[in-house]
Amino acid sequence: IIGPGEGLGRALAAKFAGQGFDLALVSRSEKNCAHAIAAVEENSGTARFFSADVTQPQTVESAVADIYQRMGEVRLLIYNVRGRFDSCRPLDMTYEALEKIYQEEVVGAFAAAKAVLPNMIEKGQGSIFFSSATAALRGSARFPLYAIGKFGLRALSQSLAKAYAVNGIHVAHFRIDCNLDVPVMKELFGSEYDPENFADPDDVAQTYWLTFQQPKSAWSNEVEIRPYTEEWTY
Fold it and tell me: Taking the model in full, what pTM does it have?
């Protein structure tokens, strides 16, 4: 899991550890993985931290190479990185911010996929999942940087799926069309917080697991996730 934060990253780590997976957790610092590591340990699993900065693709390649050396083959890669959710008008975007979001959302994702695909293709099996959002399908006057990054990520995911499904590689783009029920969102919404309007990260992780189990004759390359109360978008 690249980007194992305290929300969905933690839930994904807990879910797959509970299913018998050994987890390689990739982030800039081990502190960022603390909740995920604790979740793995609670499920009697094994987790190891590997350092990488997704804005520096060579560090991602190096981390994945280290994972292969220390832990063996990668059956599933989950790219769970989210760029900054900064608000601005399109003409207020800086070149620096645009380049950074592209590095985080697209270049880092490509580096991770590029590092695992050759071995997966050789073995004739493997899965690559990208965590994404509704922003991958529509632009935004207020959050153009986020939308641009997610558009690029979805294009990468679709391109990899089209190219390598025939080699037995399951690539899926997860459109999380909602807010996750995590502490920061509870604080943000305050008195308006209602858990029924949020997606439980553990339930979202269950959807990832079910997608991982799909037979190759009926793969999903696009997975849309939302709570039953969501009605604001298509």
Answer: 0.94
